[in-house]
Design goal:
heterodimer; A: mainly beta; six-stranded mixed β-sheet; B: mainly beta; seven-stranded mixed β-sheet; globular
């Protein structure tokens, strides 16, 4: 099976940088997603990491270490609209099922 | 292409009734997922199709839940003899096998069981 751990809540200040961590245990790792979900809306794709290292996409970056079972999402120059839940998700197993963590609710304050 | 479409958006039903939800994925996508989400939680995996084949079903899912994707296009999720604990948002997502295979989600069906 899979086990995904993320902090439940975080608070950060507008304009700052925040790092949201995700640790996981799984067999048959294929890749790791980060999704953003605003309250009352469907999740939207942010990033997908297959290999170790950092991938940067504008204000958002995602890091993966497969040997440590660890990933983080880095958000720079925080804006109020970044207040949302951030979901870490694993693709794993022979059928490549995608399993989500419980999500980290980020509140950006002025 | 208007993305993943789910119907209905909202469903209110009485305990013990059967309900059916429909999901129309992005047309070229061969993979289709069903998830259930309650407030403050991440999406919980229910089941997964590749084309018309149901590859995996959550062990947590009771026999009251069944899903089909008869022609490898749209899918239906049926819940029989609904219980109050079934109240949740039911999300459908689709993806295309290959590159990064990101999931595109529909807006979901909010089920309330009274």
């Amino acid at each position: 099976g899979q086990n995904i751990d993320q902090p439940t809540e975080m608070t950060a200040t507008e304009g700052a940088i925040v790092q949201i961590n995700c640790t996981y245990q799984t067999s048959g790792f294929n890749g790791l997603f980060w999704y953003q979900q605003h309250a009352g809306e469907a999740p939207t794709f942010l990033s997908y990491n297959v290999l170790d290292g950092l991938e940067e996409k504008g204000r958002f970056s995602s890091f993966l270490s497969r040997s440590k079972g660890y990933s983080y999402l880095l958000l720079k120059e925080l804006q109020m609209k970044d207040s949302a839940s951030y979901l870490c998700a694993l693709r794993s197993g022979g059928y490549q099922k995608v399993t989500f963590g419980t999500g980290t609710k980020l509140q950006v304050i002025p | 292409d208007t993305g993943v479409s789910q119907n209905p958006r909202h469903k209110i039903t009485k305990r013990g009734q059967n309900v059916t939800f429909r999901c129309d994925p992005i047309s070229e996508h061969n993979r289709l997922y069903w998830y259930r989400q309650t407030l403050g939680q991440g999406p919980e995996f229910l089941t997964y199709f590749q084309n018309e084949a149901q590859l995996e079903k959550s062990r947590l899912l009771s026999d009251r839940f069944s899903a089909e994707r008869p022609k490898g296009s749209f899918s239906t999720l049926e819940i029989q003899r609904t219980e109050q604990g079934d109240s949740a948002m039911y999300l459908c997502a689709s993806s295309l096998s290959g590159s990064n295979e990101k999931l595109f989600f529909g807006s979901g069906t909010q089920l309330s069981v009274l």
